[in-house]
Amino acid sequence: MSRFQSTWTRFEFRKPRHPLLRVFLGLVGVGVLALLVVGGLFLGLAMLAAAALWRIGGALFRRSRPAAADGSVIDGEYTVVRKHHPPLASR
Questions:
Q1: 57-76: per-residue pLDDT in tens?
Q2: Could you tell me which residues come within 8 angstroms of residue 29 by beta carbon, excluding any fewer than 6 positions away?
Q3: How far apart are CA 5 and CA 72, in angstroms?
Q4: What is the DSSP letter of 69?
């Protein structure tokens, strides 16, 4: 057996044999999992709320800028022209 294998097997995690300790460690694992899920949920909700406030704040405090008076703005009216598709020829 090489030195690496003997060193690696010494730090291998194994379930404890005592039943109460196994139950306790299982509950600790479930608690950590629940904490991560709830924490992620609240973090996601906080990010959504911050994004909503950012958009509302931007819409409320946005100022409309007047057009430049020096002639650099081109004013015009536009019409949308749709492409005409003829009906399919009958066979």
A1: 887 777 665 555 666 777 78
A2: none
A3: 76
A4: T
The residue written with tokens 């479930």 in the block is 30
List Cα–Cα distances, 91 to 9, 77, 88, in angstroms: 79, 43, 9
Average pLDDT (45-63) is 88
Q: What is the pTM of this model?
A: 0.48
- Alpha carbons within 13 angstroms on the beta-carbon side of residue 19 total 0
Angle value at C-alpha 15, between 11 and 17, nearest 5 degrees: 120
Half-sphere exposure of 83 (CA within 13 A, CB side): 1
